[in-house]
């Protein structure tokens, strides 16, 4: 940077006093001070912008590495799943071959496969049919006490 000592500053002050004059020197000094302040703020803004762009570049690099690692993990999981599926199919083929060889020797019946019963286990099935409940007046939905009072309150005659 520029090396400005006390003697150089005094020399600049004396020259400014002679050139500008004592009446205008305070106004010129204020103007120079504000211009120097603006220049310092501008330099600080430029530095912060450069730092932000460097951090952004680092974040982009980090994002790229994380995405590539995720792709690698996904690919390894996919390959291991396909290998497992292939091994499972091979094992099922060998089991079917062994069953068919065993059955052809002793008896010639087919091994039954599992069949889904077709029930929806999420639905609760009651013992009483819905049409009977509605005809007999059985409550099928929960109702609060206030709602029950409001429903069965006697009607006022007009």
Topology:
Elements: H1 6-20, H2 25-106, H3 130-136, H4 145-152
Describe the structure.
It comes from Simplicispira suum. Keywords: Cell inner membrane, Cell membrane, Membrane, Protein transport, Translocation, Transmembrane, Transmembrane helix, Transport. It is found in: Cell membrane; Membrane. One of its GO terms (molecular function) is protein transmembrane transporter activity. Belongs to the TatB family. The chain is mostly helical. It has a domain at 7-104. The chain contains four helices and no strands. The longest helix has 82 residues, at 25-106. It is elongated and about 120 Å long. The N and C termini lie far apart (101 Å). The model has no long low-confidence stretch (mean pLDDT 83).
SSE-based structural type: mainly alpha
Helix content estimate: over 70%
Rounded average pLDDT:
83
Find the count of extended strands (DSSP E, 2+ residues): 0
The global form is: elongated
Q: Low-confidence segments, ≥5 residues, pLDDT <50?
A: none
Order of helices and strands: HHHH
Head-to-tail CA distance between termini: 101 Å
Helices, by number, come to: 4
Beta strand %: under 5%
Radius of gyration: 45 Å
Question: How would a textbook summarize the main sheet?
Answer: none
Family: Belongs to the TatB family.
InterPro entries: TatA/B/E, TatB
Protein name: Sec-independent protein translocase protein TatB
Pfam family, one: TatA_B_E
Write a short abstract of this structure.
The protein starts with 5 loop residues before the first helix and ends in a 6-residue tail after the last helix.
């Amino acid at each position: 940077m520029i090396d400005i000592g006390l003697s150089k500053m005094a020399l600049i002050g004396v020259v400014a006093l002679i050139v500008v004059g004592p009446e205008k020197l305070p106004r010129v000094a204020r103007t120079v001070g504000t211009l120097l302040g603006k220049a310092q703020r501008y330099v600080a803004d430029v530095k912060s912008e450069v730092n932000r762009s460097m951090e952004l570049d680092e974040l982009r690099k980090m994002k790229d590495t994380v995405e590539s690692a995720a792709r690698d993990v996904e690919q390894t999981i996919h390959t291991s799943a396909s290998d497992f599926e292939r091994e499972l199919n091979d094992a099922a083929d060998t089991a079917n071959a062994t069953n068919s060889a065993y059955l052809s020797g002793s008896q010639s019946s087919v091994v039954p496969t599992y069949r889904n019963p077709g029930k929806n286990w999420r639905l609760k099935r009651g013992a009483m049919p819905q049409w009977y409940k509605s005809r007999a007046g059985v409550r099928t939905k929960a109702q609060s006490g206030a709602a029950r009072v409001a429903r069965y309150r006697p009607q006022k005659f007009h």
